[in-house]
Amino acid sequence: MSRAAEEALQVWERDARGFHGHRLRLAGVALVLVIFYVVSWRLAGIDLERLVTGLPKLGHWLASAWPPKTDELPVFLLRMAETVAMAAIGTTVATLAAIPLALLASRNITPFPRLYTPVRWVLNGLRGIDAFVFALLFVACVGLGPFAGVLGIALHTCGSAAKLIADYVENAELAPLHAVQAAGAGRITAIAYALVPEILPAVLSTTLYLFEFNVRASTVLGVVGAGGIGQELKSSVDLLDFQRLFTIIAVILVAVTVLDQLASWLRKRLV
Amino acid sequence: MRYDASTLEPPIAPAAAAAASAFPSVLAVEALGASFGGREVLADVSFEARGAEFVALLGRSGAGKTTLLRILAGLKQPSRGSVRLDGEDLATLSAQRRRHIAVVFQQFNLVRRLTAIENVLAGRLGYVAAWRGVLRVVPRSERLIAFECLERVGLLHVARQRADTLSGGEQQRVAIARALAQRPEVLLADEPVSSVDPRTANVILELLRDIASERRVVVVCSLHQVAFAQTYADRILGLAAGRIVVDVKARDFDEAATSAVYRA
Hints:
The complex is a heterodimer.
Chain A: H1 3-17, H2 22-43, H3 48-64, H4 73-104, H5 116-128, H6 131-142, H7 146-171, H8 175-182, H9 187-218, H10 230-238, H11 242-270
Helix pairs in contact in A: 4-7, 4-9, 4-11, 5-7, 6-7, 7-9, 8-9, 9-11, 10-11
Chain B: H1 14-18, E1 25-36, E2 39-50, E3 54-58, H2 65-72, E4 80-85, E5 88-89, H3 95-98, E6 101-104, H4 116-121, H5 130-135, H6 140-152, H7 168-181, E7 186-190, H8 198-215, E8 218-222, H9 226-232, E9 235-240, E10 243-249, H10 255-262
Parallel strand pairs in B: 3-8, 3-9, 6-7, 7-8
Antiparallel strand pairs in B: 1-2, 1-4, 4-5, 9-10
Helix pairs in contact in B: 6-7, 7-8
């Protein structure tokens, strides 16, 4: 039995037992977490009693939702198509706008290092404000309808897409880029030739993911008057017409599921 | 296949050294063959290795070195032939016995976010109850073994540093300590010095050689430099196109052997 190993183990054991150093910090973190959750529980107004008394009401509504009303189905399908269209245009515009922003927000290749921090701040701002909030503002300035929704989605998604793409670029292998530059290519040429092929699958996959996300997000934009199936959803709840509501939710579920499957199939083929 | 007594160093008594050639064969490979999708990667590979023997595997890229090591490690099934550890077929070997075959990888394969000592302790996982492994609560005796193995590779001073803060050479030595903690009879190393500088490579190969003789371990180590094999190995196996074309004592590996292994 070796002395040095025995001593090292004893030092390890002493530190593992005592309440000092990082163990004290760990206890501190645990305490803060407990306080955080207690305060959050209070602030969130968690009231299990109300849930228990409210659930039967929900059950009653569910029971009255059958059979679903299908006479307005063509309208719902049109509204759902509108929703998907909003997501598609919004996501595409956002991604196209995100590419130059992403290059500016990538520390390793930005041509203007001074702009790095401001651009990152702008992206954080865009990402921090939800499409729903943007839509609310745009309804006030361009009027009711899906166009306001598209603008809302585009702005919010642009921030997310640019940040995700910039993160890919920052983690990308730059050696091939430098090799192409060393071979005499200019900066833009080198990026197009060596960096774009590297990150393109990731960018496309991100775009598809954001599209899926936006289809789901767009379903509620109608609530603030920004077009899509959300308007029908809100009017059904306002009228307590649960048969109609049931049909709308079913349409949303089917559409979202089909699109998710389609997108994940496409994504597998890309990567 | 005589054992070269010159590599035996102290702790081992002269009498034991004299008896070296009488070490029983630990690893017996017989008529081994392997195919990948119809392409033959190994054919009719046979050899035996005794305890304390350092066997170097040489061969061009694609000659079958890695496949052979993967089969010996039990990570891949051979298409034909057998591997025996102390006479027991690898295919039917219990998990209990399998832990006596340790592997050191080219890219170290340490858990980057764990400390050096915790990585070494992973070598003891085959010996402790599963729940202990999950909760990382192991008996003191196990932890002591881990510390001793880390001491053996000269890295006691970095025991509590995270693996990803260590240099490549240090990471490879931690990986060797992890292998040692398994109390192996056979230690397999797949190009263990391809990712480190030449000086560090010497340290690591010296360590593997000393471990072989001190602990009576069979070391099978694939290498890309002939000089390393000649300096550190007892015996050199040369693979070409999946077959053993050279099987000689390291000091007998000459020009002819080199061209047999590396010819176009």
